Amino acid sequence: MEDFTNLLARNARQIGEMLDAKLSNHIESGEIARPPRLLAAMRHGVLNGGKRLRPFLVIETARLFDANIEAAQCVGAALEAIHCYSLIHDDLPAMDNDDLRRGKPTVHKAFDEATAILAGDALLTIAFDFLSDDKLELDAKIRLQLINGLARSAGLGGMVGGQVLDLEAETKKPDESGIITLEAMKTGALIRYACEAGAILSNATREDRERLSEFGAAIGLAFQLADDVLDVTADTEALGKTAGKDIAANKATLVALHGVEWAKHQLEGLMEQADSLLEPFGNKADILRATARFVIERKN
C-alpha cells in the first residue's frame, strides 16, 4: 500500500503541474484577457492539494490497453477541472455552506461568493478546452466520445442532477433506492466516466468499456459510502473539511439509514465486486485493485 500511495502522489503532482500550466497568466489563442482575481480563485480551488483520484483512474485504465499515457493525463486533467469546479460550487452557502476544503478556506471564503461561482464556471469550460486542444492528438471519433461522455457524466443526468437530488433530499427523504441513485449521480458519475474514459482512449471493445464502466460505478458507490462513514467517524483535522456536517444537516445517506457497521459490510462486498470485474485483465489490473482497496480503506 505504501508503494501505491507513492504512485498516487506522483500522479497527483503530474496532474497538478498540468493544471498549473493551464491556469497560468498566458493568454491562449482566442482569449482576450485573463482577469487576475478570477485566475487566482481558480488556482485556489484547483492547486490546493487533493489525491487526483479521478485522473489516476483514467490513466490506469488506459494503461490496461497500453494507451498513450500523455493523452490519458490530458483527459484526467480535464476531469479534475470539472471535479474541482463541483467542489467550489458544493461549498457555497446556497449548497453545503462549508468554510474548509482540503484544510484551507473554501473559495467563497478566500474571495467572495460571486467570484467562487465564476471560478467554478470557468473551470467547467476549461475542461473542454483540454479535450478539444489540438495538442491532444486523438482520432476525432474518440475525442468526440470523450467529450460527450464527460458532458453527460457532469451534467443534467450525472453530477449536477445528483446535486439537485441531494438538495431535494434535505426536505423530502428518499428511500434506499433513491439514495443510491442520488449518490451514483452526484459522486459516482465522474468516477464511472474516469474508468470508461481510459477504455475509450484505447479504442477498447464495447465489452471492456462496459466492464470498466461497471467497475467505476462500484468504486464510485464505495467512495461515497466511505465518505459517509468518515463524516460520522473522523474529525475535521483528518478530513480537511468540517466533520459531521451531513448528520447536522440531516442528509439522506445510506449510513444514516442503516448505520456504520452495515456500511462497512457493504464496502467489503463492493471490493469483491470490483475484483470480479477486473478478473479478465489479470495482473495488469493490480493497480486498479489497489485503487479500489484504497477507496474503501481511506481515512480522509
Automatic annotation (TrEMBL):
Alphabetized UniProt keyword annotations: Isoprene biosynthesis, Magnesium, Metal-binding, Transferase
Coiled coil: none
One Pfam short name: polyprenyl_synt
GO CC terms of this entry: cytoplasm
UniProt superkingdom: Bacteria
Biological process per Gene Ontology, one example term: terpenoid biosynthetic process
Requisite cofactors: Mg(2+)
Signal peptide range: none
Molecular functions (GO terms): metal ion binding; prenyltransferase activity
SUPFAM superfamilies, sorted: Terpenoid synthases
Gene3D superfamilies cross-referenced by the UniProt entry: Farnesyl Diphosphate Synthase
NCBIfam families: FPPsyn
Similarity field: Belongs to the FPP/GGPP synthase family.
The protein's name in its UniProt record: Probable farnesyl diphosphate synthase
Protein's organism: Bartonella choladocola
